Amino acid sequence: MGEEVAIAQAAWKLLLRPVRLLPDVLESDVLARCPSCHNTFSTERTGRQICPVCGKPLVVPEPPAASATAPTAELVSEPQGTPWERRGELGFWAGWGQTVQQALLEPGRLFASARLDRGGAQLGFAVLTSSVFWAIGQILERLLLRGQTDRMRQLLAAASRNPDVAPMLQRMLDVQSRASSPGAVLALAALTPVFTFVMLYLNAGVTHAVAAVLGQAKRGFPATFAACAYASAPLVLLAVPACGSIVGVIWLIVLTGIGMKVTHRISTGGAAASVLVPYLVLCCLTFLAMGALAMALRNAVGQP
Amino acid sequence: MRIARAGPPSIHAAGFAGVAALLLLVAAALPIDAPLLALFACPFRTATSWPCLGCGLTHAFQFTVRGQIGAAVSASPLGTLLAIAGAAHAGWTALRFAGVPYAPAIVAGARTRWACLLALAANWIFVALRTRP
After folding, report:
1. d(CA A37, CA A2)
2. How wide is the angle at C-alpha A189 spanned by C-alphas B15 and A287, nearest 5°?
3. Are residues A291 and B108, on separate chains, in Cβ contact within 8 Å?
C-alpha cells in the first residue's frame, strides 16, 4: 500500500490562473511530492504509481472535488525564481546585480525564491561571479602588491645565498618568479572558471554528503547546490586585494548555512552542522599552503 | 542501489562527471611525490602525527588512475573507492549522453547513512594504523 502524496499545479500555471480547486480530470502535468524521499516530481495521472526518484510506491490523490475522502493535500508552490533565474525578463545585468544584492543583504529571501530545477542557471551564476572577480583580483594583486612581492623575493633571495639554506628555497623562488610573469597571471586568470566549477561541485558534494549523513538533506542535491551556488555571491570581494578573499570566504560559509536552512527547510543547528563539518575536514586543505610555507621558511632560516 | 530507466543526465550528473574526469586527469598528470608538490604536507598530521579524514586521498587517486590498485588501497581504501566511483560515473554519464537510457538510482536511508559513517571511521583507523610510526 503506497502512501498518499501532496499534489499541486506547476508554479507557472498557478501564476496564470486564480486559486481554485483542481479539476476532476488532470488537464496536464501536476507536481507531486513523494512522502518517502520528499522529492517533487511531475506526473500526468492520479492514483497508485512509483516515485520516479526513490522507486517507492505511492498514491497521487484524486483532486478534492472528485474524492471527498482524500486527505488534505499539501500545496507545493514552486518559488518564482531568483532575479538571476528571471534574467530573461529583468535583463542580464539587472538580474545579476539584484541577485548579488539579495545574497549579501537579504539572503533568506533569495534562497526562498530559488528554483531547484534551475541548476544550470545557478551553476552559471556561481562560475561567472567567482571566476570573473577572482581573475580581476589576481591581476589587481599582481599590479598593486608588486613592490611587496619583490621585497619578499629579495629577502628570500638573500636568505638563499646562505649555503646552509635548502636548495628547495631556490627552486621555490624560481617557481614564484615564473608564476608572477604576466603570461602566467593571464593564463591563471583564464583558468579560473575551471577552478570555480570544480570547487563549486566539490563544496556542494561534500556539504550534501555531510547533510545526508546527518539526515538533513531533505530536498535532494539540487537544494544543496542552489545554496552553495548563490552563497558564492560574496566572492565578488575576491577583486579586493589582500583582505577581500578572507572576508569573502567567511561570508560564503555563513551564506551557505543560511542557504541550507532555507532550501532544505531544516533547523538552524542542522544547517550549521552540515556546513561547518566539511570545513573541519577541509581545513587541512585550506591551511595546506600555509603549513608548507611555514615548513619551508623554517628550513630556510636553518632552525631545527 | 538499482538500475532504472532514465532520460539524459541532469546538469548536476554531468557536472559531477566533469569534475571526476578533471580530478582523475590532474591526478594522472601531477607528480605529487616530486618537488615542489612533495613539500605540501597535511598540517593536521604535522601537528598531531595523526592523519586527518582526508589523508591519503590524493595518493589513492594518483595510484588508482595508474592502475596500481593495491598501492591505492594502501593509501586510502575509501579514496580508491571514490576514484573508481568517479571514473565509473564519468563513463556512465558519457554513455547516457550517447543514448543509454539507464542510470543507477541510490536511495540514502538510515542504513546507508550509518554505513557511510562506519566506512569513514574504518578508513581513518586503517590509514592511522598504517602510517603510525
Report:
1. 13
2. 75
3. no
Nearest CA in chain A to B108: A212
Residue A26's pLDDT band (cuts 50, 70, 90): very low
Best CA proximity match to A55, nearest among B99, B114, B15, B6: B6
Q: Which of B19, B102, B116 to mutate to test the interface with A (most CBs of A within 10 A)?
A: B19
Q: Name the residue of chain B whose CA is nearest to A222's CA.
A: B12
B19-50 pLDDT, tens digit each: 999 999 988 887 766 665 666 677 777 777 88
- Digit-coded pLDDT (tens) for A131-180: 999 888 888 887 776 666 667 667 766 766 665 555 666 666 666 666 66
DSSP of B36-94: TGGG---HHHHHHSS--TTTTHHHHHHHHHTT-HHHHHHH-HHHHHHHHHHHHHHHHHH
Tell me which chain B residues have a C-beta less than 8 angstroms from the C-beta of A212: 108, 113, 116
Taking the CA of residue A287 and the nearest CA in chain B, the distance in Å comes to: 7
B23 in contact with chain A, both atoms CB, cutoff 8 A: yes
pTM score: 0.71
Q: What is the ipTM of this complex?
A: 0.83
pLDDT at site A14: 42
CA distance B18 to chain A (A): 8
The more confident residue out of B9 and A278 is B9
